[in-house]
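Support request, please re-run this one:
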Amino acid sequence: MEGRAAGGPSSLATTRHPVTAASAWPTQGRETPTSRASRYPRRIDRPFQIICEIEPPTRPDLRHVRHQIGVLSPIASAFLIPDNHLGRATVSSVAVAHEVEAMGGRSIACLNSRDRNELGLRRDLLTAAAYGVDQFLCVYGDKPSTGGRTSELTVRTMLDEIRAFGADLAVDGTPPRVGVVAGTGALPTWKRAADFVFAQVSFSVDALVRWRDAVRLDVPVYAGVMVLASVAMARRVAADIPDIAIPEELVRRVEADREAGVEAAAAQVLALRASGAFDGVHLIPVSRYRSVAARLEPMLA
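Re-run finished. Output below.
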């Protein structure tokens, strides 16, 4: 793999002060991670997982995708592939998921309701089955940059259709696994039928753990962690997704040091692992995937 060599150890992993879960998630006056972990069903039989989101190509060239996969493989349990990311046309999430599998990884292909009718969804499920892709995350989809929404399918109807139509397309006798995204409020009853849940991105470990305390689920739940790459990115996220609160202190740190966003995300991953509340994280490294891999690999060893 051309990207694996580029993902090796770098000065980032050795010259900066290591971030520990204890420093990132203080426990004074709170439950300890050990006591909290005992309240959740997973921990004993499922290891903490890192689901790395990769940026799909907007051109017919998979080299950058392969590089991301190679660099992130040492820390990734699986890879999440967005679907027409940010409302732009990209290479099919199912095709990129197949590339992940071909490189020896595990993939989760996003399928959005924005761009599909029922026939289109069935086509994608057939293609996925032919490629051996059997995990999906159903999402609503960002505002399209071109054209409009089909408005025929919702995330709920997609979930039902994958269960019904996908059951006959089982890969190796196993039906597809399908997940949903959860907001910061109460989880709708129908979303509890999913095989796994991705919690909305948050820069607050406390907020994520409080949400997890309030939502009782027996399926794997992954907390959303995003690397803040720049001040400009912070402003875009704040404008496009007002539900995500970005600490001004973090923005100032990123403005002064471009590695601060990577360090904050790494600390958050360790803190969430120590909390015992989640089965893993959905990690969005954006363009900083090299630094993220170099920073996290020695911490997770």
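Residues 1-38 have pLDDT under 50 and may be disordered. The radius of gyration is 19 Å.
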